[in-house]
Amino acid sequence: MNRKLKALGLAIISTALLLTACGSSDVATTNGKGGLTSDEVVGEISNDAVKPSSITMMVDGTLITQENGRDEFEKKWEAITGIDLVIIQPEHDVYYEEVSKAFEEGDLPDVILLSSNYYTTYAAQEMLADLTPYYSGSELEKSVNDAGKSALIDGLRINGKLFGISPTRGNGCVTYIKKAWLDNVGLDVPTNYAEYMEVLKAFTEGDPDGDGVMGNTYGVSAAGIINNEAPYINYLPEFYQDAYPSFYEKEDGTWADGFTEEAMKEALVRLRDAYSKGYIDKDIAENGTGDCRDKFYANEYGIFTYWAGTWAKTLSGKLVEAGVDGELVTMPPLEETGLYLERVAPVWCITSACDNPSGVYKYFLETMNDGGEVEELWTYSPISDSYAKNHIDHLLATVALKNDPGAGSITEDQANALKIFNDNSKMADLPYSTDAYSLYNEELMGLKKELVKKVVVDGADIDSSFAEFEAANGAYMSQAIVDSLNAE
């Protein structure tokens, strides 16, 4: 059996969840801040562990930032649990640079949020605590099983061991189109690639925004031509179609690198053609997700492939705030695309530096999935009365809130976007981090991105670019990883 992770698809539920942490141990029963005692919060948890006095965690911008209420979140969490919480939150766009630095220098927090690729890498390097004995028989396991979501956790096991908890499904991206733009150019929602290109042409060369000026807009933007983590192609699925720029498991159970296959060259032709015609944002190779959102709100382009669920409401609302028509159409996958890809959810891990992993599991992970007060805090902003999202999307939670105060805030657009994604998606493969994968994949992905940019943005010849890729040992590293995956 291949050593790999493969999270399984889960049914959508309307609720909330997630975060993690650890630290030095010390017994305490009252919080000293006028909040609930920790025994009241975690009294029914089965794991008989020592309560940590403090927990240091590292998290990206999916937790509310300091300017948006993080201090209030921290104070309320500490008041409920009686544990000091130290939050390390680098800027979202450089988060994994800081993560890599922390692991390289050994300056690790107690708990850390990791994308699927980093999760497999650091698990293989034995830098994450084995949570298997804490999860087995715990209240969290019981809650997950009762919710019918055991496959989500089981999909994170590596050789039977669990090194992290992912309390939500991974979710994925769907393609949103501005309805007013479609109406202005007299076109319907595309169903195949030819129709999609027709829409891009009209959005770029016509007057889709209705300002009376022709050709001052463009069709589509994205945060990079290839995303930084699996499934890599989720921001531009219409161009990639059946191509995949990384490792995947074939129907016969063997692994291959889709980047070296003919389908990838065909995808590059489509991308280069659309870019050369001005249909794609000229800054696509340098864009971050924030850049794309800002341009979308500024009405610079009309098609944006972004996350299903809460973002359907957020994108629409931000457009209205910017004085732009906020009605969006969620497009089912094109005929050639087949299905959208769902990512493996980010994973909360206790690091090997933590001196009380059992206590952190009990007093942090278990409470975070309590279905009640603590989980609600991770789900909604503590300074907003409109059920603004905090770290967890209540539509994607593994364990539902017993009484979700934001259940009535789900809009028709959100529900529709999620339904289209859930009905038309499959989970992306995620290979286990073999020695060759750990050794080569980062450099290999750099070569792949360089090739893609050279072809798409610079208009380079595809065969010549692949020859340069091979000369730079790209083909060698790719095959070495494939061989290692198939040897498992």
Task: Report on this structure.
With 488 residues, this protein is α/β, with parallel strands linked by helices. Helices cover 39% and strands 11% of the residues. The chain has 19 helices and 14 strands. The protein has helices at 38-42, 70-81, 95-105, 116-124, 132-135, 139-146, 150-154, 179-185, 193-205, 237-240, 262-276, 289-297, 310-321, 357-368, 373-379, 412-423, 435-456, 462-471, 474-487, and strands spanning 4-5, 54-58, 84-88, 111-114, 173-178, 218-221, 247-249, 255-257, 301-307, 328-331, 340-342, 347-350, 425-427, 430-431. The strands form five sheets. A four-stranded mixed beta sheet has the order 3-2-4-12. Strands 6-9-5-10 form a four-stranded mixed beta sheet. The protein has a two-stranded antiparallel ribbon with strand order 1-14. Helix 2 (70-81) links the parallel strand 2 (54-58) and strand 3. Helix 2 (70-81) runs antiparallel to helix 15 (373-379) and helix 17 packs antiparallel against helix 18 (462-471). The longest helix has 22 residues, at 435-456. The radius of gyration is 23 Å and the shape is globular.
